[in-house]
Amino acid sequence: MSPEARLPQPSLCLTGLSLLLSLVPTGLGMEVMAPPIISALNGTSVKLSCTFNSCYKVENKQFSLNWTYQECKNCSEELFLQFRMKIMNKQLDRFGNRVEFTGNPTKNDVSFTLNNVQLEDEGTYNCYVLNPPDRQRGHASISLKVLTKEPPKRDSTVAVIVGASVGGFLAVVILVLMVVKCVRRKKQQRLNTDDQKTEEEGKTDGEGNPEEGTK
């Protein structure tokens, strides 16, 4: 095999790098992370991975999850899997009983597996997560592509090594950003609580002692 054949394809490297960069938190709200594109071979099973970051412990009584399906960009979303205290599958005709929840919300994993993938399963899968006291609902989308035959194999050893190195670095970055985010959020909550207490004390001092006013 020639040296050129062993080199990673540029498109493969760029795709992997784009995927890794998409996992980096961009704000102070809840982050929901999922690969933008997943390919599956017709007739096989595929895991649609979705994870989230939250500064708060998951409580089943408050935590909520919705998975929806869109056949096309402008099509309406169809709810097919929901978590409210427990997992509830909405048995859409297109999926039947082929949807299996394989995540664990207490471990920040809300993935599911789609068994016996069909060509008509292609489309966009939306993952919505809410974990109070987080006020904003997080969202991520996955575009599922169904293949009729296996793609040609490539020697992507170098690409895997590069991807692993970049992935390890980004994992550290994500961890640091999450720690900073949680520290800021908890500090802001303490400031809000202190301001509220100061305001209440000010109101009390302003009212004064009724007996002093009559002297």
Structure description:
This protein has about 220 residues and is α+β, with helices and mostly antiparallel strands. The chain has a domain of about 120 residues: Sandwich (Immunoglobulin-like), CATH 2.60.40.10. Helix content is about 35%, strand content about 25%. It has a 6-stranded mixed β-sheet with strand order 2-11-10-5-6-7, with no helix packed on it. A hairpin with a 7-residue loop joins strand 5 and strand 6. InterPro entries: Ig-like_dom, Ig-like_dom_sf, Ig-like_fold, Ig_sub, Ig_V-set, Myelin_P0-rel.
Strand content: 25-35%
Number of strand segments: 11
What order do the strands of the largest sheet run in, or round the barrel if closed? 2-11-10-5-6-7
Low-confidence stretches: 1-27
Key features?
215 residues; alpha+beta; Immunoglobulin-like; 6-stranded mixed beta sheet; 3-stranded antiparallel beta sheet; 4 helices; 33% helix; elongated; disordered N terminus; transmembrane helix; glycoprotein
